[in-house]
Design a protein that fits this description.
Layout: E1 14-19, H1 22-31, E2 43-48, H2 64-76, E3 80-85, H3 93-100, H4 102-109, E4 112-115, E5 122-125, E6 134-137, E7 146-150, E8 152-156, E9 160-162, H5 176-179, H6 193-202, E10 209-219, E11 227-237, H7 240-250, H8 259-266, E12 278-280, H9 298-301, E13 305-310, H10 314-327, E14 341-346, E15 357-359, E16 371-373, H11 380-388
Parallel strand pairs: 1-12, 2-3, 2-7, 3-4, 7-10, 8-10, 13-14, 14-15, 15-16
Antiparallel strand pairs: 1-11, 5-6, 8-9, 10-11
Helix pairs in contact: 1-2, 2-4, 6-8, 10-11
The chain binds iron/sulfur cluster (SF4).
Iron/sulfur cluster binds next to helix 10 and strand 14.
Length: 400
């Protein structure tokens, strides 16, 4: 890849914030402050968060108008632009692009969309890795001169927040993303191996530019089971760590409290110290609107449900939480409300109770005990289909 836009990894990074003008104008506004001339005649990959099938109002996926403004800005600068994603397991990139509106935006602009999972991956060593020493990266990633990470501003139940650095995990090939959730504790390191692994990944997969979509973010049980949070705000900066640090502050937390950002900053991959970052406009702190943290609300909200979790990945946890959030009000149409519904996820359960709901391939050994939903992880709609016996759900996108 190229050296990046001017300002990348400088000791005094700049971050620009725009609020109150809608996603398209906010994005044009912040990108107008950044020198995009290095992108002339270069290939630029826009990497939004389109990892799940959802609408942007949900706060789960990147707003298509942010992507539209990025395409228009880079084309104005003379770049060859494409949009790519490798979604969570069980979701196809083009279905996700379609659902969130990015496909429509790209079609109107004749901009190429890429399913990053199609080609065989490229394995890369991580010389400084503490949790992981190599990763499988989507091959298309290496065809581009500049990578632009365009995440949604979200809280995350396992990583604190998910912003431009964590969003690069969507450049890991297919199921290799899940492997980061299945690591053993690292001797001598207190941080969760997932957070160390994201910092490891950041040593070789960092964005050249971060555009953080705070049009509608997600607070609470992110990345997918929280509540939408409207901010009408977009940030951009050529140091993803600096952009993430400013976003953290706007979300009411600080990058120093986010393990993968802290670990990476300690290794000098980028700057998260706000005192070293030039932030514009000067009144940016008036945009601060604290996000609710990630509470453990499941047992409170669903007293008749017990989740038996043994060494599961956050992907399966997210699936269950999102499923309960969306369908928790109808689930007892299919199970007796007088009984406790036991949901089983994760690896290594020796025994499970009768009539349980086993979710994910790791629970396959107990499939005779109740209902078994295959997948790694399965998506919420697959769980609902299994429970209800429906083959298609209302409004579902059907591949022909
Ligand atoms: S089934 Fe769930 S817990 Fe098992 S490996 Fe897949 S995502 Fe992880």
């Amino acid at each position: 890849m190229d050296d990046g836009f001017s300002g990348f990894n400088s000791s005094n990074p700049s971050v620009f914030v725009s609020q109150g003008n809608g996603p398209y104008k906010n994005t044009l506004g912040v990108l107008s402050k950044i020198d995009l001339r290095p992108a002339k005649n270069k290939r630029v990959l826009l990497k939004p968060n389109a990892g799940r099938i959802d609408r942007p109002e949900s706060g789960i996926v990147t707003n298509p108008q942010v992507v539209a403004a990025a395409i228009d800005s880079f084309r104005e600068a003379g770049a060859d632009v494409a949009v790519g994603e490798s979604p969570i397991t069980g979701v196809k990139a083009f279905d996700a692009f379609e659902a969130c509106g990015i496909a429509e935006v790209c079609r109107k602009r004749n901009c190429r969309m890429i399913d990053l999972d199609i080609r065989p991956p490229v394995e890369r060593e991580i010389p400084e890795g503490k949790a992981i020493r190599k990763i499988k990266v989507c091959a298309d990633f290496f065809d581009f001169d500049f990578i632009v990470s365009i995440p949604v501003m979200k809280m995350h139940m396992h990583t604190g927040v998910t912003l431009s650095i964590k969003n690069m995990k969507g450049c890991l090939w297919r199921r290799s993303k899940v492997e980061l959730h299945m690591l053993d504790d690292i001797p001598g390191i207190d941080d969760k191996p997932l957070n160390v692994a994201i910092a490891d990944m950041a040593s070789i997969l960092h964005p050249d530019l971060a555009i953080i979509d705070g049009t509608v973010g997600m607070e609470g049980l992110g990345p997918s089971a929280g509540e939408p949070k409207k901010l009408d705000c977009v940030l951009a900066g050529t140091d993803g760590f600096a952009a993430d640090a400013v976003a953290c502050r706007i979300m009411g937390t600080s990058a120093e409290k986010i393990p993968h950002l802290r670990i990476a900053a300690e290794r000098n991959y980028g700057s998260i110290d706000l005192s070293t970052i030039t932030i514009s406009p000067g009144n940016w702190e008036t945009f601060i609107s604290p996000f609710a943290d990630t509470p453990d609300i499941v047992s409170v909200k669903y007293p008749n449900i017990e989740i038996h979790d043994r060494n599961s990945c956050s992907a399966c946890q997210s699936t269950v939480l999102l499923f309960l959030k969306r369908y928790g009000n109808i689930i007892f149409d299919y199970f007796s409300p007088n009984d406790v519904l036991n949901i089983v996820i994760g690896k290594g359960h020796e025994n499970v109770s009768e009539k349980c709901l086993c979710i994910g391939n790791c629970t396959r050994a107990h499939k005779e005990k109740g209902l078994f939903v295959p997948g790694c992880p399965p998506v919420g709609s697959a769980i609902l289909k299994k429970i209800t016996g429906m083959t298609h759900l209302p409004g579902e996108i059907i591949n022909t």
